[in-house]
Amino acid sequence: MLKQLFKKGILMIQQLSYLNGLHHLHKNKVIHRDIKLANIGVKLIAEEEQRLLQNNALSVFYNAQYKLLDFGLAKQLMNEELTNTYVGTELNMAPEILK
Fold first, then answer.
1. pLDDT tens, 9-47?
2. Which residue has the higher pLDDT, 54 or 3?
3. Closest CA to 64 of 84, 48, 83
4. How many other C-beta atoms can be found within 10 angstroms of the C-beta atom of residue 11?
5. How far is CA 91 from CA 30, 37, 42, 45, 73, in A?
6. pLDDT of residue 56
7. Catalytic residue among 32, 34, 35, 60
8. Which band of pLDDT confidence, cut at 50, 70 and 90, is reported for residue 60?
9. What is the reported pLDDT for 25?
10. 41 DSSP β-pair partners
11. Is 34 an active-site residue?
12. Mean pLDDT score, 51-68
């Protein structure tokens, strides 16, 4: 199934959607601080959801909406403020952060 997603370019559409969301956050000086697969949602309209369930029609993902979820650790920055707290899910953190 993953091979089919790559072939259809769906993963690129998803990535661009996430990047647009991050760009919007950063433009408004908001940092998410817990980006991981579990915090990314997919919204399908009801008809597309039925097509996926009945026919395994991966093309429904072209028209899906992809959204960042769980802003519980998000922070609004003021001016040129930096953050120095380490938050997030350890399994998804960069190794240099865990040192």
1. 787 888 888 899 999 999 999 999 998 889 999 999 999
2. 54
3. 48
4. 13
5. 23, 12, 22, 32, 16
6. 83
7. 34
8. confident
9. 95
10. 67
11. yes
12. 87
Identity of the residue numbered 45: I
Cross-strand partners of 76: 30
**Across-strand partners of 75?**
31
In single-letter form, the type of residue at position 63 comes to N
Amino acid 15 reads Q
Q: Please tell me the distance from the alpha carbon of residue 38 to that of residue 55, in angstroms, as a whole number.
A: 25
Q: Report pTM.
A: 0.71
The full set of domains in the chain, from first to last, is 2-98 (1.10.510.10)
Q: Which residue has the higher pLDDT, 1 or 25?
A: 25
What would the two tokens of residue 10 be? Answer: 């769906």
User: DSSP letter string over 17-66?
Assistant: HHHHHHHHHHHTTEE-----GGGEEEE--HHHHHHHHHH--GGGGGS-EE
Calpha distance 8→10 (Å, rounded): 5
Name the token pair of 95. Answer: 């190794």
